[in-house]
Amino acid sequence: MMFPLQGAQMLQSLERSLRKSLPESLKVYGTVFHMNQGNPFKLKALVDKWPDFNTVVIRPQEQEMTDDLDHYTNTYQIYSKDLKNCQKCLVSPEVINWKQHLQIQSSQPSLNEVIQNLAATKSFQVKQTHCILYMMAETIKKLVPSLLEGKNLSPNSGKPEAICQEMFKPSSLDVTHAALVNKFWHFGGNERSQRFIERCIQNFPTFCLLGPERTPVSWNLMDQTGELRMAGTLPEYRAHGLITQVIYSHSHYLNKLGFPIYSHVDKSNTTMQKVCKKLDHITIPCGWNQWHCVPL
Ligand SMILES: CC(C)(COP(=O)(O)OP(=O)(O)OC[C@H]1O[C@@H](n2cnc3c(N)ncnc32)[C@H](O)[C@@H]1OP(=O)(O)O)[C@@H](O)C(=O)NCCC(=O)NCCS
Predict the structure, then answer these.
(1) How far apart are CA 111 and CA 121, in angstroms?
(2) What's this model's pTM, rounded to 2 decimal places?
């Protein structure tokens, strides 16, 4: 059986404990970090025991999960030190509602075996997405400095060349820009993803560049797990260095707020991989993993 952690002290202690298991705990660590900063998505943390937990599951409150088809809301983050224990924990419908369309996110690729085993017994279809995981060098320096050994960082912390300041003005997104972000988001393009994007815009700092029409031409967001996400540039403004500038400014602003900075990029997206390399965002061996589960 798993039970929810109650109160600020326990959650802060969980954050400190997860920090010792980075980078494998990164997705859960980032989420708990933001739960401790006001918890705007009203998430809860379940553990199998306390304080020496084996498995942590972060999930929304049941009352938030009213749409069985909304896998953007029905999203769980998992970290476990013991995969056998993890599988036992996840069987319970009080931990994961397997009757819904849902997503599981984790920086631990080894969770795949657990989820595949559960898919067979619980009768759901599962699609795994494995992407490249990046952490900003400044974040690594603070949290897991050993990962920087042997890395050649740029002398100017990846600072990009200035862009035309007459033409492009730095700004933030407002909720009416969710449709634009949704149109270019690889995992989006539907009404449910648009609602999720609206929630991200309302609750976390965003960054964009306004073009000559004074509307966003390049943008970057953050989600409830503290990850930088949904970057995009309008096709007619691409290859002018705009997203490089946006991500540089956004990540340095968030870093000053003390946030851990990380992101993922699809293995086929060589443009974004180039951007990350240029900005001293370092690849993390465990990778970024998401499982999309649909009941049969
Ligand atoms: C990926 C994307 C955000 C890049 O935005 P952008 O503003 O064009 O990026 P930049 O101009 O800063 O380009 C970064 C680098 O990639 C290069 N580049 C940009 N578009 C390219 C293309 N189509 N082919 C090859 N190289 C390209 C740039 O020349 C630049 O390299 P350089 O610094 O050596 O000159 C944009 O193509 C996009 O919105 N794609 C669809 C959504 C997406 O994939 N988002 C990212 C999710 S992680």
Answers:
(1) 16
(2) 0.96
Q: How far is the CA of 195 from the centre of ligand 1 (A)?
A: 26
Is 205 domain-assigned? yes
Distance CA 91, CA 26 (A): 23
Q: Is the C-beta atom of 184 inside 6 A of ligand 1?
A: yes
Q: Which domain holds residue 267?
A: 158-279
- CATH assignment at residue 215: 3.40.630.30
Share of the chain above pLDDT 90, in %: 95
Asked whether residue 191 is domain-assigned, the answer is: yes
> How far does the centroid of ligand 1 lie from the alpha carbon of residue 78, in Å?
31
Measured in angstroms, how far is the CA atom of residue 272 from the centroid of ligand 1?
6
242 lines ligand 1 (CB under 6 A): yes
* Protein residue closest via CA to atom 47 of ligand 1: 231
pLDDT at 156 over 90: no
Is the Cβ–Cβ distance between 15 and 273 less than 8 Å? no
